[in-house]
Amino acid sequence: MSEWANLRGLNISSGWSPRGGQTSAAYYSNSTPEGSSSASAVAAALGLSMAAIGTETFGSILEPAELNNVIGPKPSRGLIVNDVTLPTSARQDVIGTLTRTVSDAAHLLTTMAGRSENDERTWNIPFAVPDFTTYCKDTDLSGITIGVPRSTFTVDSTSPIMISFESALDTLHRAGAKVVDNADFPDVEEFMKLNQQVRGIVRASEFKRDIVRYLQTLEANPNHIHSAEDIIRFTKSFAGEEHPDRDIRKFLWTQAEGIYVNTEKYREMVSQGQFYGGEVGILGAMEKHGLDLLTVPSSMGIANDLALFIGSDLQGFLG
């Protein structure tokens, strides 16, 4: 795992932690494994484990799955209990799987999904958890309409990712699905203008609250860490953290921003995200084009950003 889901600083490499050192991607020497759940993806890709578990707030499963050529579905928040997960944002954090095949991912999801007394969001699951492996036995997608919101992509059309993505679209079409190209979000340009600010303020505010709640549950806390301020203090003082060579600028920004979840600014940012993800974003596009689902080239765009705000699971193509 990358330390703190890349929330700590700007020059923290993906796949590094003071406990385990640097992880490299599976197929090229000294290449980045990407995402916080990087070692899990590399272990599954190399066959060091049949499957692995990852966590994601934004891209921490999707990105290492993409770069290491494994299956990394990001479940909807609340499908799997995450009450013991060290949080970035308890509202957005999810637990997912990293495997070499879709059927392995389905087996794990069937076992892991379900309600828990320790996570109230799991009680919002609107159905009895099925055996997801039954959906791996049929390739007929007749009657399914899939939208491609190209205006949300931020990757060159000639890149290997896009070449693979176009091939996947062709496979879906040949399986019987109706593919609606350019099923774009109505106000995508407006969201892109405020995208980074909204994401940063919302996550920083939730981190300050959720990390305190998590630390209060620990049975042992030998370093007496009880808040984000204590985390900063420890990071500066513990040699294994390699500070200041590996910086803490994101941590410091989290503190300096001074916005908390009980403020009007936080509520305004959450509301903006839900608006741009909902009626003028994902939900608006799905209603306009009669879509059953959307597909994007993994994390290469803002569609996953919007999905976070409205609690959707937007499945990207994962190599």
From TrEMBL:
Domain Amidase: start-end pairs: 13-196
Identification of the protein by name: Amidase domain-containing protein
InterPro entries linked: Amidase_dom, AS_sf
PANTHER family according to UniProt: AMIDASE (PTHR42678), OS04G0183300 PROTEIN (PTHR42678:SF34)
Pfam families: Amidase
